[in-house]
Amino acid sequence: MKYVIVLGDGMADEPIETLGGKTIIEAADTPNMDMISKKAEIGLVHTIPEGMKPGSDTANLSVLGYDPEKYYSGRSPLEALSIGVDMKSTDIAIRCNIVTLSDDDLPYEEKTITDHSSSEISTEDAAVLIEAVKKGLENDIFKFYVGTSYRHLLIWDKGEVVELTPPHDILGKTIGEYLPKQKELREMMKKSYEILNNHPLNEERAKKGLNKANSVWFWGAGTKPALDSFEKKNNKKGVMISAVDLLKGIAVGAEMTNINVEGADATLHTNYEGKANAAVKALTEDGYDFAYIHVEAPDEMGHQGSIENKLKAVEYLDKKVIKTVYEGLKNAGVDFRMAVLPDHPTPIRCRTHTSTPVPYMIYDSTNEMESSHNYNEREGKESGNYIANGHEFINKFFEK
What we know:
The structure is a single chain. The protein is α/β, with parallel strands linked by helices. It has two domains: about 1-75 and about 225-395, Alkaline Phosphatase, subunit A; about 85-220, no CATH class. It contains 15 helices and 13 strands. The strands form two sheets. It has an eight-stranded mixed sheet with strand order 9-8-10-1-11-12-2-13, sandwiched between helices. Strands 3, 4, 5, 6 and 7 form a five-stranded antiparallel sheet that branches. Helix 10 (about 245-255) links the parallel strand 8 and strand 9. Helix 5 packs across helix 10 (about 245-255), helix 6 (about 125-135) crosses helix 7 (about 185-195) and helix 12 packs antiparallel against helix 13 (about 305-330). The two termini are about 15 Å apart.
């Protein structure tokens, strides 16, 4: 038996008035999910433990079977694993986003955060800007590392885990009350604006109609992580297929294999088919038992508040990932189980993550069911199937 999870990051949503009271998943044109759901089990799973913040870090750990209350040590340390930073036990890792702040004459504290991803900046552009930040701010205590797109890393030697606010939680808000209380972090953020706002690359971006990547933003502090081996835990040899450092870092910590797909960039126009085909190949030709396909686009479009583009992201997931995986494994003649689910909701209403349960679907090629349900939040609830502890989902999926 082969196993594959298709994870649409932030795909779940709330009923939207302009969509006739439907959620994004309900309103999207998803013929493949609709077809498979008639032969599958659907339900709801609560991926975020009570009292924990609804991040992609905690949620994806849950889906992969790692109880966040036991294994979670912060988001950025997982990304450090992906980047290849060998953290000391006394290091603190901090996510270093490059964000867009309002380009005005107001003091830094009175500026507004307008875009947490700086027009989904390319890694190539971001690397140039991070290099400028390094030259201006790096010292023996604080070290900067380039990640992917707008997501980068700060390592704080002998630092402390301080309370920091995710930038996507305060889009459109004045930043003053959300700045770090820790003086050195706050001052580096302020100085980064002076370094970046008029940087030649940002001037070029502005001329092209792109948002300036004009400030670093620190969040997600944590200590060195320690995950158990996924293979030893589940007796399954697994691969991770994602363009996001967080997921790649989880895979490194869990001793899974990361497969990098050309053109996979965590945007709306990522290489969906490439990811799906890589999973099929891993499962049918390369000897792997389990593939985790992570697609970031629905989450990004939720943060942007774009109904149109979040619909597109879910439709691309359906037509380019789910269809490709389903048909690829069917044509290969292997027995397989496929799960489809989000890690958490990213509702258009609030443009950030929430903790409500998400819909799941589990299809088994050896045990096709007869159902009238479509895959979505409402019908998942109506099914009566509910998994209260997200980290137990993988046991159900693997039939433990």
